Amino acid sequence: MFTVLPSLSIASESAPQRPANIILLLADDLGWTGLGCFGSDLYETPNLDAMAQRGVKFTNAYSACTVCSPTRASIMTGKSPARLHLTDFIAGQNRPFAKLKIPDWTKRLSGHEVTIAELLKQKGYRTGHVGKWHLSGQGTEINGTRPIDQGFDYSYERPQDSKGYLLKEQSDGESKPAYLTDVLTDRACEFIDASKEDPFFLYFAYNVPHTPIQGRKDLVNSFQKKIDSKSTDQKLLHDNAHYAAMVASLDQSVGRVLACLESNAISDNTVVLFFSDNGGLTQRNGKHDRFTENLPLRRGKGSAYEGGVRVPAIAYWPNVTTPQTVCDEPVITTDLFWTLCDIAGVDVDDTKLRDGQTLVPLLKNVAETYDRDLFWHYPHYHAGGDGPYSAIRSGNYRLIKFYEDQSCRLYDLDQDIAEQVDLSGKRPKLCSKLQGKLEAWLQSTGAQVPTENSRYDPARETLVVRSKKR
Question: What class of enzyme is it (predicted)?
Fold first, then answer.
């Protein structure tokens, strides 16, 4: 049923003669418990599980935002979404009668921003992008914002004019069924094959398991049988066969990519990083969707809570990462830019605007600690959300500020990972201290905040005027 991760050969004693290849794998809407090695009781992910066994599994990894485009921008630039003013998914949604008016945010990744692809290209890397981009402008604003404009030598998003995951491909004059993840994996492997003589950077941004929830038929049938075989007293946390099939296709793709490295004899000199762009989608418009579950975390994509931003993350760097290691240090997608710069030997003199840190010290020694706080800023409304908010994680504590009523909630993640017990009343001094840190950060990044809406209408506050879908 699955493609199993091949055995990875042992590197020769001599040091590599060229910089390490880099592959960044980014899942879409994959929640914290969305892999076997992160606790799923249904999803089967042998390749990613094996990768975690051979490398580092991050238990406190975060996306820079609770939705996709801002997180992707943080990866490309090493800057927080708040600093970029790119704080919602492109093109976002508009609630003209909500209590607060959202800021006039930036609906594209500006061509003036220097991306990791541009920097690696200058360093001699061949750069490739496969899959979802979701950083381009709309209409005429698309110019200068596509992957090929942002430093990528090669870019393939999806078959032209296709939608969803269940595709038709022409082969020998016949139309045959195909699955998007498999098609994208073909392109990714072709890029690796064509680039093996030079150092390369591959950014493989999967669409799965984002909606629409469409699994490959053979995998759906297999997981449905697995679900049906459970007795009534064996309730599964994850119980959607289509979603499980999408996660399985992701894992199979990872296996194929790693096998491609092995067949080209370059696996020993390739760093592979795996993250998700935000948490799993669990509800929309106040209704729980039976797609996935992020428990024990609270809520999911679009929300202010841990379920929206804590994600699975794995790193494998042959002869650098120690097998079977677990890193509990909080890390965030903004760190990926600086990590890739460090791996490739790119010197970026941009410390004043640095919103992340290199993870290389952690890859070498998971006992390393970073004396820093993590921040989030989402001044928007979302179908899966709680209204505009900002948040800080400082040590074990997480404080969330909600803009509609200016309230703050404080949680001790060590004792209450589900964020059920608000400590703001019991710990007023700590609450005030973290509020001060959060406000200082918002000021330093020039964050845009929501304002009073003169058109506020309680009867229509949840009405969404939709922008054109991408």
Answer: hydrolase
